[in-house]
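Worked Example 4.2. Consider the chain below.
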Amino acid sequence: MHPPTDEKASDDSTNSRNALNNEEAASDSAQFALDNDPVYSYKEQRKIIHRIDRRLVITCGIIYCFSLIDRGNLGNASIAGMTADLELNVGFRYSTIVLVFFPTYVLFQPPATLLSRKFGPRKFLASITLLWGALEIGFGFAKKWTDMIGLRVALGILEAGLYPSVVYLLATWYSRYDVGKRYCAFYVIGCLALAFGGVLAYGLMQMDGLEGMKGWRWIFIMEGVFTCACSFFAYFFLVDFPEKADQSWRFLNKDERDFIVRRINKDRDDAIPEKFTLARFLRPALDIKIWILAFISFLIITVTTSISVFLPIILRNGLGFTIAESQCLIAPPYCAGAILMIASAYLGDRFHIRGPILIFNSLVALVGLPIMGFASSSGVRYFGVFLVTAGTNANIPTALAYQANNVRGQWKRALTSALFVGCGGIGGISGGTIFRAQDAPRYIPGISAAIA
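Applying the procedure from the previous section yields the following structure tokens:
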């Protein structure tokens, strides 16, 4: 047998380059067809899309920001005195309070997505935001730790409607390779809550003694008031699905609405929903790809939830920072995460890839976890927090875009969004239990579970 000649190797290399060039040409051709509209020029199209960005993505991001503040303020309230007042350091009380939010949060997501479709996201999302804001105020008046359990269960029911409805809503407005950056922008705005929620909580703590109430109670009360105010903002600025866009206040006209519908139909032909039937909604559950996507969500959210809920406690009890330092040092890792998110979204939309980016971000987090758990210096362990927080949170918008790119059909998209976020909620249950008070200061079981 003769070895390959240089000429044959050159032919193979040429064939590979030609195949790559053909793929790029096909991608460019599809994008050209998408941007070729009979009414609007490319420049006019981008103006319309950017107007949608400013109205839809920013409004959804602000609501999600308040959702994360209300859901994740347990850690800040805990180190501000709630643990001592409600005796949460006994057994698994704190972990139980974290945990009970998620069963109702998971169970009510599929019906909540349907309600959003039926009543319209503007009315539905503004209503549940107002209700959970009022409920959040009630947290500030809890007398014993069991009161917190009932409030957290109810909070799970109300917040169940937000995330899957927004994920579904954004997917209906954008083409497959426009949506990644929009998910990223939505989640980056939400991450402002995770980044600066500790700073806000520290400021609200200074109300300690006002009206005879402890500072941790004012964290819940004032953040609930802010959320109620946000619900009125949402009622006027949120928009409905594309086919009803011209009915939203000071938004698109009929011609602009028709352009969006044409664009989505050229991309995947599902701008207008089919008539709802339960069978049509549930049938996609037989597709194994939907469950694989949901399992990816479970793995990602397990780690992100554990970090967001327990990070203030880990910084305080594990790394030895003061209360003020622990609440303020939450922000820098999430800012680093925002940079990685933006880079991931840009590369994913630009080169039409999602899977390799998910793998890379996971490796970043995987490097950070043992540093966070096993390094001897607090500074080095805090560097590990940067890697874990950045890698895991950057994967959330990437995974959202991954599932949106692989689903066609309005009701299949609605079910996929609900299952994707619902399995993420199950990951929240898992994440809410892996860091235990008795494992301080190293939290080795929690770190090991997150690595696994």
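DSSP finds 20 helices and no strands in the chain. Confidence is low (pLDDT under 50) at residues 18-26. Compare this with Example 4.1 before moving on.
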